[in-house]
Design brief:
Blueprint: H1 3-9, H2 16-34, H3 43-60, H4 69-87, H5 93-113, H6 119-126, H7 130-141, H8 148-153, H9 169-187, H10 191-202, H11 207-214, H12 218-235, H13 237-240
Helix pairs in contact: 1-3, 2-3, 2-4, 3-4, 5-6, 5-7, 5-12, 7-12, 10-12, 11-12
Length: 249
């Protein structure tokens, strides 16, 4: 079923007020995500997916769970948009596969040494030249799977909408523990990676602006951000690999 058909199928009779009141929230989230996506992604597609998320949120919201409707709807809207991006994934499987290889290598090195894995060590373990390693980082930088949004909002089983009415307390606790683990690992990133992540996701600077702040090129910022995401994926493997890791095809 396509998005428009699903949109029409939903009964909004008793939820028109919530939908009208929060329609602008859909646009805000869509344009916020667009700042992190390639130009071929259409904002109208994100808005349509987000409206479906808003409609579903209006049907399933339970105030007794403690979250405000705007908070709950924002999670559902963003999740619906990311699901749409995932459905239209333009990234070759080889990019995903190489990204996982890098994450596995980082995990191995850091488990053995007890410190941050260095780029030359990862390249050596993978038996590739440093230039090829940097190319993998560049390719991964264009892949939406290596983003904070994917780690905190994507398909991983622990992070689906935290305020689902039928979500068991233990499930919510697990998700909160994951978010806490993610925050801890971000704070433990190497200094430059931590700075880039903070400027990009907290201060919402674009890659060019970050490059000016830290004195490197835009492409280098992209590489640093990609390496940070791969390092986080490696360090959070015990969470992310539980039933959610893509098939290595």
């Amino acid at each position: 079923m396509n998005g428009l058909a699903k949109y029409k199928e939903l009964d909004t009779t008793n939820n028109d007020g919530l939908i009208i009141e929060h329609a602008e929230l859909v646009k805000r989230i869509a344009y916020h995500l667009m700042n992190r996506l390639p130009e071929n992604v259409q904002v109208d597609d994100l808005i349509q997916a987000g409206m479906i998320g808003l409609l579903e949120a209006s049907r399933h919201y339970d105030a007794s769970q403690g979250a405000s409707f705007e908070t709950y709807a924002g999670i559902r809207i963003r999740g619906a948009m990311i699901d749409e991006i995932r459905r239209l994934d333009w990234t070759p499987r080889s990019v995903h596969k190489k990204g996982r290889m890098v994450a596995d290598a980082i995990q191995k090195i850091e488990n053995e040494t007890g410190r941050d894995a260095r780029a030359n060590e990862v390249a050596e373990l993978l038996e590739i030249e440093l230039d090829e390693y940097n190319q993998i980082l560049r390719d991964s930088g264009n892949s939406r799977i290596f983003s904070i949004e994917e780690l905190t909002q994507g398909g991983d089983q622990f992070l689906e909408e935290f305020a689902e009415a039928d979500s068991a307390p233990i499930d919510r606790l697990t998700r909160e523990r994951f978010k806490s683990a993610l925050a801890t690992e971000i704070s433990g990133l190497p200094e430059r990676e931590r700075l880039v992540v903070s400027l990009y996701y907290d201060d919402e600077l674009n890659l060019r602006e970050i490059g000016k702040v830290i004195g490197v090129s835009e492409s280098r910022v992209s590489q640093i951000n990609s390496q940070a995401m791969l390092r986080l994926r490696a360090r959070l493997a015990e969470w992310l690999d539980k039933d959610s890791r893509p098939s290595k095809e």
